[in-house]
Amino acid sequence: MTTDQEQTNTAESLSFKAEVQQVLHILAHSLYTDREIFLRELISNASDALNRIQFEMLTNRDVRDPEVELKIEINADKEARTLTISDTGTGMTRDELVEHLGTIAQSSARAFVQRAKQGEGSTNASEIIGQFGVGFYSVFMVADKVTVVSRSFRPDAEAAMWEATGGAEFVVGPAEREQRGTTITLHLKEDASDFADTWRIEQTIKRHSDFVAFPILVGEKQANQQKALWRRAPREVEADQYKELYRQLTLDMEEPLMQLHLSTDAPVDLHSILFFPSKRERGIIERRVEGKIKLYSRKVLIQEDARDLLPNYFRFIEGVVDSEDLPLNVSRESVQSSPVMQRIKKTLTSRLHRELNDLAEKDSAKFAAFWQEFGPFIKEGLVTDYESRNDLLKLLRFQTTTSGDDLTTLAAYKERLVEGQQEIYYVMGSTAEAARNSPHLDPFTARNIEVLLFTDLMDGYMLSSLREYEGLKLRNVDEADIALPGEAAGAEPQIDDAQFASLAERFAAVLGDRLKEVRASKVLRDSPARLVAGEADYGREMQRIQQLLGREAELQARVMELNPGHPLIAALARRAAEHADDPVVAAAAEQLYDNALLLEGLHQNPAAMVPRLLKLLEAAAGVNK
Ligand code: ADP
How far is the CA of 335 from the centre of ligand 1 (A)? Predict the structure, then answer.
């Protein structure tokens, strides 16, 4: 046992956590194309530490060296083959050195190790480092020994050092250092000695760290422009710089779909770059998109993850918002309730809508890619953001019975209404193919009436606030009594009323309380049967959502319509007339019911159909039982 006193006065050797050891091993042995990114990682850590101390000092002056300049200094010694990176940020205590540099905080470490082992990225370490954010450890690509000396901003903290050579252990101990901050010394590997050249360092900073918000001094000279990217005029920013900023903010390997760069001083001072990711999921590390918006005020990072700057349905957006008008008073509540905040939110939201509508007009393929990933969020917005309704309505896209793979807007659908059509029709299904096979479509197809395909989980939810569009009611094709324009009779009956009645009776007996009624259809043409709903049964859209979410939803009893003009129904009627308890008739009743549920995406357990299908196949093949 050591006392606290002893512990701070002596050096000790500790083991890296297993995942760090693996990462170090991989880094030290991988082939890399651009290992210069280690410098970017260290500068980014220094800049984070500077941000944190700046934030701390907004409310707390009781820190070490409150007056010291916030900056990053880089010095190289070509002879000694060393490189030092110093900052005046928060610094770290001995315990913090152990905790932060001895373990990997991110749960991504395991994924990193796995990926690297599979050999997927082993030839390009920078790619995996970028993706998994192993940050600090990237120094071991260029150094065989790293010494960190740090002193925390807390007035009572002593200086401490940390040292490692890329093996399984590191050393921590006391150190001499007066000033707050951190100095990292790299003892460069022989084949990495060029990183002790000033020009090489400057060039690397230009390429990767030019817009870091604090001065980076190489020797006496400032090497970065320092002006934040979002504070520059959009025309001065190059496409690659946006990509680099996006990568740094998100660790997303894919390029963003697009970005919105806004720099204005009216109605509010607002400098912002917002990114649309290209994918909803970010692969192995993060399964779910929750974008993060960093909020700066007067060059100080005041929130890492500002939640109230955009409406919730834009939560997949990532980026930076910076405004001089925000009060530097940092308590979350006061920022949130600030009227400036509301104005920023309004401005950003309407710009995002405009940007999306522009994209839809100018680049429909790119918009389709956006819609594919983020359409459900826009539908959510339609329900939750009433004020933006008109903007959001313009963004909606659907496949239809006649669109093939293309998407249509509601406005375009409206242009194509047939003569006398006064409603917008939709059919629900788990996929476009299922929806297109819906028996409910018979009378619509017969009249050339286009029907929207609602195949997305969010469609049902969206309907709760999209009951009509420009005076046209939205109607589910499964409703019983839809009056359609024009003539198109159902199929000619092939059986008489008495035959039909006995079949209907049989179906009703087999299906029991799953049905309200069995009756002859007046509208079916090519399909044998359908389940209709009364107008009052709305809720089935919601039921489908429950179903898709994997919750048991109780199915409402429905009306089954049979097509007396369909050869299958006619044949079944004849069989039922001969043998009231013909097992084929019973199995057919069950199967027709299941088919209907299946096409609507409401079937709870399709595998349960298999034994029955087998029996039906046996009957069809003439097997006698
Ligand atoms: P990340 O930066 O992604 O968290 P790193 O491995 O690069 O991962 O760094 C681990 C942690 O070490 C940081 O989160 C931070 O708490 C601490 N750290 C690293 N460099 C510094 C520094 N220059 N000043 C203060 N703390 C630092």
Answer: 27
Distance CA(136)–CA(104), nearest Å, equals: 10
Full strand arrangement of the beta sheet holding 300-303:
258-264, 270-276, 318-322, 293-297, 300-303
Same domain (yes/no): 215, 242:
no
Residues 503, 573, single domain; the answer is yes
pLDDT digits (tens, 9 = 90+) for 93-151: 999 999 999 877 655 556 666 666 665 544 455 555 555 556 788 898 899 999 999 99
Is residue 105 within 6 Å of ligand 1 at its C-beta? yes
Block residue for tokens 């002593």: 158
Q: Which residues contact 512 (CB under 8 A, 6 or more apart)?
A: none
Closest CA to 279 of 305, 316, 311: 316
Give the model's pLDDT for residue 287: 43
The best mutation among 45, 184, 212 to test binding of ligand 1, ranked by most ligand atoms within 8 Å of the C-beta, falls on 45
Give pLDDT, residue 239. Answer: 94
Residue corresponding to tokens 């009645």: 501
pLDDT per residue as tens digits for the range 436-450: 999 999 999 999 999
Domain boundary among 366, 398, 424: 366
Q: What is the tens place of the pLDDT at every residue in 405-455? A: 999 999 999 999 999 999 999 998 889 999 999 999 999 999 999 999 999
User: Which regions of the chain are under pLDDT 50?
Assistant: 1-2, 121-123, 284-288
In whole angstroms, what is the distance from residue 374 CA to residue 291 CA? 13
**567 part of a folded domain:** yes
Domain boundary among 318, 345, 366: 366
Question: What's the N-to-C CA distance of the chain in angstroms?
Answer: 82
* Cα three-residue angle 229-235-240, rounded to 5 degrees: 55
Say whether both 137 and 42 belong to one domain: yes
Cα Rg for the chain, rounded, in angstroms? 33
Q: Is 38 in the pocket of ligand 1 (CB under 6 A)?
A: no
* Residue 545, H or E segment: helix 540-548
- Host domain of residue 94: 4-222
How far is C-alpha 144 from the chain's CA centre? 39
For ligand 1, whether the C-beta of 87 sits within 6 Å is yes
